[in-house]
């Protein structure tokens, strides 16, 4: 994953520059710069308007005790859209513009949430501790006791309040 992020950081400016040079060769340098500034200004105004609306929805849902997950997803992706629109270039403007579409933001939010939950479940499975042995509870033998690591149970690993045998 870090390698992919590094490649994206290196590839985005190269792609942006090549597209800016191509468009600048077709329509001229000044119109290209003005077009970049225009797309950024229009996009940021849309981000501002949608951001205010999302913030009002978030506050209303919070006051009414409703779930705020969708509003948080919208707010996060609007911030990302604003960042992409601030970066000069047409590719980042297109990505930022796509993030202004509410159904696309929700779809991306669901995909990322599902991916995170799957990875979290896999991590929990890998980090479980199984202690082999016998355990007796109320006179009955219990087998295969699973104990979660201290970070998942909220208990301290070095608890000194335990009774000593």
How is this structure best described in words?
The chain is mainly alpha-helical and 165 residues long. It has helices spanning 2-27, 29-64, 69-86, 90-98, 102-126, 150-153; strands at residues 129-131, 135-137, 140-142, 145-147. It has a domain at 14-126. 72% of the residues lie in helices and 7% in strands. The strands form two sheets. A two-stranded antiparallel ribbon has the order 1-4. It is elongated. Mean pLDDT is 81; it is low at 155-165.
Q: Using DSSP, what is the number of strands?
A: 4
Calculate Rg over CA atoms: 26 Å
Strand order of the largest sheet: 1-4
The rounded distance between the terminal residues' Cα atoms is 49 Å
Largest β-sheet summary: 2 strands, antiparallel
Structural features:
72% helix; elongated; disordered C terminus
Topology of helices and strands:
Layout (H helix, E strand, L loop, with lengths): L1 H26 L1 H36 L4 H18 L3 H9 L3 H25 L2 E3 L3 E3 L2 E3 L2 E3 L2 H4 L12
Antiparallel strand pairs: 1-4, 2-3
Helix pairs in contact: 1-2, 2-3, 2-4, 3-4, 3-5
Compact overview of the structure:
The chain is 72% helix and 7% strand. The chain has 6 helices and 4 strands, in the order αααααββββα.
């Amino acid at each position: 994953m870090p390698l992919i992020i590094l490649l994206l950081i290196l590839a985005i400016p190269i792609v942006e520059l090549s597209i800016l040079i191509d468009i600048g060769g077709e329509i001229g340098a000044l119109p290209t710069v003005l077009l970049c500034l225009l797309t950024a200004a229009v996009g940021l105004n849309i981000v501002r308007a949608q951001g205010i609306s999302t913030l009002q929805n978030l506050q209303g849902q919070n006051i009414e005790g409703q779930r705020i997950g969708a509003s948080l997803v919208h707010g996060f992706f609007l911030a990302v859209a604003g960042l992409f629109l601030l970066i000069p270039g047409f590719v980042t403007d297109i990505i930022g513009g796509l993030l202004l579409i509410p159904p696309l933001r929700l779809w991306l939010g669901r995909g990322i949430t599902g991916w995170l939950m799957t990875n979290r479940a896999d991590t929990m499975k890998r980090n479980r501790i199984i202690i082999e042995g016998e355990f007796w509870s109320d006179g009955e033998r219990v087998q295969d006791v699973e104990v979660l690591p201290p970070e998942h149970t909220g208990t301290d690993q070095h608890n000194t309040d335990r009774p000593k045998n």
